[in-house]
Amino acid sequence: MNTNSAKKEDILSRFLLEREKDPGCFDNKYLRDIILNFVIAGRDTSAGTLSWFLYVLCGNQRIQDKIAREVREATTAGDRDVGVQELTACLTEDAISNMPYLHAALTETLRLYPAVPIDVKYCFSDDTLPDGHAVRKGDMVNYQPYPMGRMKFLWGDDAEEFRPERWLDGDGVFVPESPYKFTAFQAGPRICLGKEFAYRQMKIFAAVLLYLYRFEMWERDSTVGYRPMLTLKMDGPLHVRALPRRASG
């Protein structure tokens, strides 16, 4: 097989094809920075969030089962078991949009375990913050999504409780919060461009996993700590047990 003729759809190949058309459009350093941005912002964040998602679900079997039922009803109407290939074919845009509880559970995970626990902004001009604090051009302003997601005056007395229902109205419809309160994807002109893609990707992975398996901690009541890095890493591996799930639950 002539590999040169193989059609490549990955992002690096697409950039290289564009440069073949216009060799002066960008250099190797620019291309490296673009790829690193996608790797760090688009891979580590989603993978880390899914790890924390499984961790909190292991301690909340009721929530885990409720998500599994929602996935089943949105894909196969809940009346039969299907394999991975048929399940993934059922994960259409309409099916994914009919999983508000899964969306809420992922959002609740990001509230408690934001992919980027500490962030910073650079002041391009003198300004005054809403609390009256003055900042000068060139100042660096840090904010911390991790403790912000656990503040009782923002989220109520149950701020440290994993409760997806806080994101749903009385009809079970997802109701988003202001991005200035829920800062996992930032806000304003610099809001994450990949937000909707990240949700879609995580929902597909989560739907497949929870449709097929029930997860529990390998050691009952064990806990996992975190490492405050650029992204919120677990302090060690996540040891879980995956048990086959059937239509009955």
TrEMBL record:
GO terms for molecular function: heme binding; iron ion binding; monooxygenase activity; oxidoreductase activity, acting on paired donors, with incorporation or reduction of molecular oxygen. It comes from Triticum turgidum subsp. durum. The keyword Membrane applies. Belongs to the cytochrome P450 family. InterPro entries: Cyt_P450 (IPR001128), Cyt_P450_E_grp-I (IPR002401), Cyt_P450_sf (IPR036396). The keyword Membrane applies. Pfam families: p450. Keywords: Heme, Iron, Membrane, Metal-binding, Oxidoreductase, Transmembrane, Transmembrane helix. The lineage of its organism: Eukaryota, Viridiplantae, Streptophyta, Embryophyta, Tracheophyta. Its cofactor is heme. Heme binds at C192. This is Cytochrome P450. It comes from the Eukaryota.
